[in-house]
UniProtKB/TrEMBL annotation:
Protein name: Alpha/beta family hydrolase
Lineage start: Bacteria, Bacillati, Actinomycetota, Actinomycetes, Kitasatosporales
The keyword Hydrolase belongs to this UniProt entry's keyword annotation: yes
InterPro entries given in the database record: AB_hydrolase_fold, KANL3/Tex30_Abhydrolase, NSL3/Tex30
Keyword vocabulary terms for this entry: Hydrolase
KANL3/Tex30 alpha/beta hydrolase-like domain residues: 34-215
One Pfam family of this chain: Abhydrolase_11
Organism the protein comes from: Streptomyces huasconensis
MF annotations from Gene Ontology: hydrolase activity
Length: 221
């Protein structure tokens, strides 16, 4: 069951009932004819207001990519703590039919915990590719607790966008694999860069949007 409303910015907000509760999709349609749909969800500590998600939603529609910002049921319900990974997967599976209705190849994406969800479910759901923003390779300070198997098991073309100073896994810590990795210099887990860094916060967001745009352009080439 879905329900759509229009915001003043003409973005469509759609509520989707899943087995984990009510999820919400905020649509940012492509300008002109769309060729891809990028669906991205948030992490365990924030929502779709994350700087990288908002930057992608603002930039990609001009390049023929519709963007769906997905809020997991726990966020829609106003809870502060994310549920277990299996429950996150249930929520993601539940919104997939609403994505497929657009009739476009769907790139499954997310940041942090959302990136893990996208990797775990990509093959099962038939995703065209995976965009993993700030993939949490391991808990901070615990490199022995690696989640590399989730990333390596995605089974579809995958782009990892990782901050150079991410405590959940710096780019150099990532294992060899068939995925691509884009580094955001100086960025932390939220892609925030220090004020004294050699690039500004806006520059960091441009690294992300330009890199994802180029990668997405090659997916259907």
């Amino acid at each position: 069951m879905t329900h759509e409303t229009q915001t003043p910015q003409s973005e469509a907000t759609q509520l989707v009932e899943t087995d984990a509760g009510t999820a919400r999709i905020t649509w940012h349609p492509a300008h002109g004819k769309a060729r891809l749909l990028l669906a991205v969800s948030h992490g365990a500590g924030g929502g779709i207001e994350a700087r990288d998600l908002q930057a992608l939603a603002a930039a990609l529609p001009a390049h023929g990519v519709s963007v769906a910002l997905v809020e997991q049921p726990w966020r829609v319900a106003g809870k502060k703590l994310a549920p277990a990974p299996k429950t996150l997967d249930v929520g993601w599976r539940g919104i997939w039919p609403a994505l497929e209705k657009k009739g476009l190849p769907v790139v499954s994406g997310g940041r942090s915990a959302g990136a893990r969800v996208a990797c775990r479910t990509a093959t099962e759901l038939g995703a065209a590719a995976v965009l993993a923003l700030s993939f949490p390779l391991h808990p901070p300070g615990k490199p022995e607790k690696s989640r590399a198997d989730e990333l390596l098991g995605a089974g579809v073309p995958t782009l990892v966008v990782q901050g150079g100073n991410d405590p959940f896994g710096k780019p150099a810590e990532f294992p060899e694999g068939t995925y691509e990795l884009l580094e955001v210099p100086f960025g932390d887990h939220g892609f925030k860069v220090p004020k004294k860094a050699e690039l500004s916060q806006d520059d960091a967001m441009t690294v992300i949007t330009d890199g994802v745009t180029q990668w997405a352009g090659m997916l259907d080439a």
